[in-house]
Amino acid sequence: MGYGTHVRKLIAGAFIGVILAVLVPSLVLAQNGDRKDNRPERGIAVYTDYSGVAVARGENVQMDLTLENKGKADENIDVTITSVAKGWKATLKGARYRVNGMYVPGGKAKTLALNLEPDKGIGPGKYAFQFEAKTQDGKFTSSHALNVNVEERKVGTPRRFGFAPKDHVDICTALGQLDFDRAVKVAGARFTLIKGSLARLHRAIAQFMLDVHTQEHGYTEIYAPYLVNAESMRGTGQLPKFESDLFAVPRGEEGKFYLIPTAEVPVTNIVRGEIVALEALPLRFVCHTPCFRSEAGS
Asked: What is the CA radius of gyration of the chain?
């Protein structure tokens, strides 16, 4: 290759680089300027911060029940406690069992004070409560389950600190290992990015769990699909009751795929519709997957 050819290629490369340097920022700016509101026109969710709480005998449960409007349109929403565990009283915002016509603007959330009071003599065990939110035209609903676990006994004394302890979210955010702001930019509310050594710890714990079950307890490791059909969701009881808590992916004329809310769904359905020979039992499977759920705490 001659010197002249070399120079011409360098000049051409530099020229293209300048063009890209000018065009790419323009394209990015145009794309950002064109950003659209991808929220659905309508959609709601009801949830508590946790799906289960532990309390001492005779202790009341006081927490917020969140009512979220996921859509663009403002909504008037009815909220009902549809199931109350035997031996308990439940109130929402001071009203028993039901609050009508909660006004929630599009994209906003409101909280209702939830109080669960046990009768005297309630013993240890798990007590289940169910909540339902419904738009006043009845077209959109959401449900949420809460388990209250009354303790059997206490062993030892909780450690007392000489300072105000922080939870894992505050600690890891301060260390730069949890990034909620950028996760909201990438995906939306209630997502996070796990980074650095925390991401490594997350991976190590999953690996440790799989290794223990496969190498020490004789389980067969499964790497399962993250998308399943409606028959699989029905097979494990997610459909039809909990459809509002699932993420659906349209398949055109073939219906929908669903993102799995737990590894239980694809693993349990491995032998759905089959007769398993007695001598083949027990079947021991272990699987690690993300869990795609829209209810709180997921």
From this structure: 26
